[in-house]
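hiii, so i know i said id send this last week but things got crazy w the move. better late than never?? heres the sequnce for the chain we talked about at the cafe, plus the structure i predicted for it. fair warning i was half asleep when i ran it
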Amino acid sequence: MQWLGIFSRLRRVAPHYGVIIVGLGAMGSAAAFHLARRGERVLGIDRHAPPHALGSSHGQTRIIREAYFEDPAYVPLVQRAYELWSELESEAGAKLFVKTGGLMIGRPEGVLVSGALRSAQTHGLAHEVLEGAEVARRFPALRPEPGMVAVHEPRAGILFPEACIGAHLSLAAKNGAEIRTGETVTSWKADAQGVSVFTSAGTYRAERLVIAAGAWTRELLADLDPPLSVERQALFWFDPEGDRERFSAGRCPVHLWEFDEGQFAYGFPDLGEGVKFARHHRGMTGSPDTLPREVTASETGDIRRLLARFLPGAAGALRSSAVCFYTNTPDEHFWIDRHPAHANVIVASPCSGHGFKFAAVVGEILAALARGGDPGFDLGLFRTRW
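okay and structure toks below
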């Protein structure tokens, strides 16, 4: 009887889950999928109900590109991501990707063009360098300014983020993951037996913890005080004027622009909801719970002026607008690492506004790290740096 009592007490403190994932957006949903299909007992928790429009992973479309100007080290990751998105598309029976080709447009010495060329040449990627006049001839929706050139890559295209997150979460649940939404994680604690996660609804125990909370990462890692900034970004969709066909996916690739000494913008063809265009960075920073979610007339006017420069005819009636968040590291590279004091706690990718395309492979990496395995990639660029 004495042994029965001891066994009962041990059972009460034993971890209930193999892995708890906090945050079920791009990275967390992918991690839940990869862990559940490997037989882990997974609990995923999110304060909202993904896919939703309150964080970083919404807005109908995201660019996926291979000639990665940020650093050649990303190229093997995005190549694996292409494979995983294709597999997910097949398994989910949903359309998640459209190939359009992509253009990186700017001055030859700029960060965008020179970085894309460096990645393309380092990894032997298919690409072309086009003069501005050739860009305008082949893609009549676009008007590079004098002195601009473009790197064209044929494999670039569009991911549908809400559908991608929905597919990951649906298949995670199908493989046994427990998904709890509308539940806010208030704190967590790691000890020799595992981790405890405290939420607005109760307390959960697990062997390991993955924190993939996006804009809410910093508040869940107050012990590390990571230098993350949450940046508000405004997105716009306009009805094109005149010949709409030139803005279609068949004639207009996804496009990134560098202009005016280090400013960036990006755009998409019209997939039926209008031409999407937005600035990349230079947004207001603050708390994700207090940053304004309404787009202003001044912001709309700013985007109209950029469209007049680079996509003449795109800025007809404003169809819709939205706000999303970038969670930026100081060097704008990802953060994927174990907590320095708790090897069973993994931090996942505040990704500085360029991470969605990698979500499928980051989920696979997080599953490997949570299971104590080899992530399969050199993560040196993404380790804790502060």
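btw The chain has two domains: 23-46+59-83+157-226+330-386, 102-154+229-328. thought thatd interest u
miss u guys!!
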